[in-house]
Design goal:
heterodimer; A: 13 helices; 1% strand; B: mainly alpha; MetI-like fold; 2 domains; 12 helices
C-alpha cells in the first residue's frame, strides 16, 4: 500500500488559498471600478457641459449671466430670462407643493385610519411614477384650457390686491409661469410628501405619547413635537423637491409658452433653462449651441448645490438616529 | 382669556388643521385621477392595430411601430449597460466600502445623480458620444440609438446602485460570518450567498430603474434624435415612444395628437405596471427612489 503523504495536500491548499486571494483581489477591483463609474458620470456631466459651453462661458463670462437678451440672429446670448423662469416656476411649485405635501404627510401619519394609509400613500407615490411627458400632455391639452378659463377670475380677485396684485394681471393665455409652476407642484408633491411622511415616522412614539398625555391636540403634537424633531430632514425633503423642479423639462416645456421674457406677471409666458435647451438644441449651431450647453452647465451646478444641501440636511436626522 | 376660550381656540385650530390635511390629500388624489383619467380616455379612443403595424413616416395615417421598437431596443441596451455596472457598484458600496470614506462619498454622490436633471445627462452624452462620433465619421454617424441608450443607462444606474446597496445591507451579518467561517472566499460569498439572498430586492431595483428610464424624453432628444422609419441598427438615428409623443404633441394636427395620446397611454401603462410589479415583489421593505 502506498503511503499517502500529507505534503501534496498542504501544497494544494496553499495554492488554492493563493488563487482565492487573487480572485478576491480581481473581484474587488472590478467592483471598485464600477463604483468609480458613478463618480465619473457625475464629474463627466459637469466637465463635458463646461467644455461644450466654453465659448460662451469663458468668452462672454459675466455678460452671459447678466444679459437678458437671447438673440440667435445676432448671435448674442444672455441667460437671465431662462434663469428667471427657472427660479420663478420652481418657487411657485414650492410655495404650492410644500403645504400640500405637509398636509398629506400629516394625514398619512397621524390622521388616517391604519387601513387607509397604505393604499392612499401608494396612490400619492404613483404620481411620482407618471412619466413627465404625460404631465406635459395633460398640462397642454387639459390644464392650460382650464387655467385660461379661470385666469380672468384670478386677475379680477387676486389682481386687485395691492403689492402682489401685479403678479396676477395679464392676458388669460392659460400658458405661462403660473401654469408651469402648478404642474411642477403636482410633480414634486409626491417626493416631498414621501420624505416628510418617512421622517415623521422616525419620531419616537414615546415623545408623541408624552405630549398627548399632557393634553395636546393632534395638531399641537405635530407642530410642537414632530416638526421640531424632524426639521432638518423636512427642509432636506423640500430641497429635494426643489432640485426636481429646477431640472424638470418636459412638463414645463409644453405649458410655459417659451418666450424670453422677464415680466412681473405670472400669467405671461416665459422660458426655463431646460425648456430652452429642449426646444432649441436640435436647430442650434455654433455659438447658439454652445450657449445652450452653457445653460446646461448652469443648471447642473445649481441643482447640484441644491441637492447637496438636501442630502446634508437629510443626513442630519439619520445621524441622530445613530445610523 | 378664560381657560374655556383657550381650549376652544385650540380645538378649532386642530379641526382646521385636520380639514386642511384631508383636503390636501384629496387634492393630491384628485390630480392623480385627473391625469390618469385623461390619459386613459384619450388613449383608449385612439388605440388601433395600425399603431403597432405602421411607422411614423405616414404621419396621421401611420402608427408608432418604429417608435415602439426603438424604445424597446434602447431600453434593453440601456438595461444591459446599467444593470451589471449598477449591481456591482452597489455591491462594492455595501460589502467593501460600507464604512470607508470613498464608499460614503460615492453613496452620497449617487444620491445626487439620482435626482440630477435628465436633460443635463443628455447634454453630457451629446458632448462625449454624439459629437466625437460625428467628428470621427465626418458626420455620417451622429445621433444614434446607442447614444440614446447610454443616456438612459445613466438615468437607471443610480437607482440600481442604491437599491442593491440597501438590499445587501439588509442581509444579516450572520450569513456572511457563517460562509466565511467555512473558508469560502469573499467573492464567492458575495455572488453565491449574499446576492442570492438579496436577489428579489435587487430585481426590484432593476424594475424601478426600467420604469424610470422608459418614460424619459428629454435626454433622448439630442442623443437618439428620432427617426420616421424603422431601424434596429444601434448607430442609426432611432425613434422612441417618448420622443415621438413629444414631436406629435408639438404639432398642430389633432390627428397626430390622438396618436400621441395612444402612445402616452402605452408608456403610462408600461411604467405603472412595472412600478406595481416591483411593489408586489418587494412589499415588505420600502424602497426609496426619489
Amino acid at each position: 500500500m502506498p503511503v499517502i503523504s500529507a505534503e501534496p495536500i498542504a501544497r494544494d491548499n496553499e495554492q488554492r488559498s493563493r488563487e482565492d486571494a487573487r480572485h478576491d483581489r480581481i473581484f474587488r477591483r472590478v467592483l471598485k471600478f464600477c463604483a468609480l463609474l458613478v463618480l465619473a458620470a457625475l464629474l463627466g456631466a459637469a466637465l463635458s457641459t463646461l467644455w461644450g459651453g466654453r465659448e460662451v462661458l469663458f468668452g462672454d463670462g459675466l455678460r452671459f449671466l447678466l444679459s437678458d437678451s437671447w438673440n440667435p440672429v445676432d448671435d448674442k446670448y444672455g441667460a437671465l430670462a431662462p434663469i428667471f423662469g427657472t427660479l420663478v416656476t420652481s418657487l411657485i411649485a414650492l410655495v404650492l407643493a410644500v403645504p400640500v405635501s405637509f398636509g398629506i404627510a400629516l394625514f398619512l401619519t397621524e390622521i388616517a385610519p391604519a387601513w387607509m394609509r397604505g393604499p392612499v400613500g401608494a396612490a400619492i407615490e404613483l404620481l411620482a411614477g407618471i412619466p413627465s411627458i404625460i404631465y406635459g400632455m395633460w398640462g397642454l391639452f387639459v390644464f392650460v384650457p382650464f387655467m385660461s378659463s379661470i385666469e380672468p377670475a384670478l386677475s379680477n380677485t387676486l389682481g386687485n390686491i395691492p403689492l402682489i396684485g401685479k403678479l396676477f394681471q395679464g392676458p388669460p393665455l392659460g400658458l405661462g409661469l403660473l401654469t408651469a409652476g402648478i404642474v411642477l407642484a403636482v410633480m414634486i408633491l409626491p417626493f416631498i410628501s414621501s420624505v416628510m411622511r418617512e421622517v415623521f415616522q422616525t419620531v419616537p412614539t414615546r415623545l408623541k405619547e408624552s405630549s398627548y398625555a399632557l393634553g395636546s391636540t393632534t395638531w399641537e403634537v405635530l407642530w410642537d413635537i414632530v416638526l421640531p424633531y424632524t426639521r432638518s430632514a423636512v427642509i432636506g425633503g423640500i430641497f429635494l423637491g426643489l432640485g426636481r423642479a429646477l431640472g424638470e423639462t418636459m412638463a414645463v416645456t409644453f405649458v410655459l409658452g417659451n418666450s424670453y421674457n422677464i415680466t412681473s406677471s405670472l400669467l405671461m409666458p416665459g422660458t426655463t433653462i431646460s425648456s430652452s435647451i429642449a426646444n432649441e438644441f436640435n436647430e442650434a449651431v455654433g455659438m447658439h449651441r454652445s450657449a445652450l450647453i452653457a445653460l446646461g452647465f448652469l443648471l447642473f451646478v445649481v441643482t447640484f448645490v441644491v441637492l447637496l444641501i438636501a442630502r446634508l440636511m437629510l443626513r442630519q436626522l439619520a445621524k441622530r438616529e445613530g445610523k | 382669556m378664560s381657560a374655556n376660550s383657550i381650549y376652544a381656540r385650540r380645538r378649532i385650530t386642530n379641526v382646521l388643521a385636520m380639514l386642511f390635511s384631508g383636503c390636501a390629500t384629496a387634492l393630491g388624489l384628485l390630480f392623480l385621477v385627473w391625469i390618469l383619467w385623461v390619459t386613459a380616455s384619450n388613449g383608449l379612443h385612439s388605440i388601433h392595430l395600425s399603431l403597432f403595424t405602421k411607422i411614423t413616416a405616414y404621419a396621421d395615417q401611420g402608427g408608432l411601430s418604429n417608435a415602439i421598437v426603438g424604445s424597446l431596443l434602447m431600453d434593453l441596451m440601456a438595461m444591459l449597460m446599467c444593470v451589471p455596472i449598477g449591481v456591482l457598484a452597489g455591491t462594492y458600496l455595501a460589502e467593501y466600502a460600507n464604512i470607508s470614506k470613498l464608499g460614503a462619498s460615492i453613496r452620497f454622490l449617487n444620491d445626487i445623480l439620482l435626482s440630477a436633471p435628465s436633460i443635463v445627462l443628455g447634454l453630457f452624452v451629446y458632448v462625449i458620444i454624439v459629437l466625437p462620433m460625428s467628428n470621427l465619421t465626418h458626420g455620417s454617424i451622429s445621433f444614434s440609438g446607442f447614444a440614446g441608450s447610454v443616456a438612459l443607462a445613466l438615468i437607471g444606474l443610480p437607482v440600481i446602485v442604491r437599491t442593491t446597496d440597501e438590499m445587501l445591507q439588509l442581509v444579516p451579518g450572520t450569513l456572511r460570518e457563517a460562509a466565511l467561517s467555512l473558508g469560502v472566499p469573499q467573492w464567492k460569498l458575495t455572488v453565491q450567498v449574499l446576492m442570492r439572498a438579496a436577489s428579489s430586492g435587487i430585481l426590484t431595483g432593476v424594475l424601478l430603474a426600467l420604469a424610470r428610464l422608459a418614460g424619459e424624453t428629454a435626454p433622448l432628444l439630442f442623443t437618439a434624435f428620432g427617426n420616421n422609419f424603422m431601424t434596429v441598427h444601434p448607430l442609426d438615428k432611432m425613434a422612441s415612444l417618448p420622443a415621438a409623443i413629444y414631436q406629435y404633441t408639438n404639432d398642430p394636427s389633432p390627428a397626430l395628437h390622438s396618436i400621441a395620446w395612444a402612445g402616452a397611454l402605452l408608456i403610462t401603462l408600461f411604467v405603472l405596471a412595472l412600478s406595481l410589479l416591483s411593489r408586489l415583489l418587494f412589499s415588505r421593505k420600502k424602497v426609496r427612489y426619489e
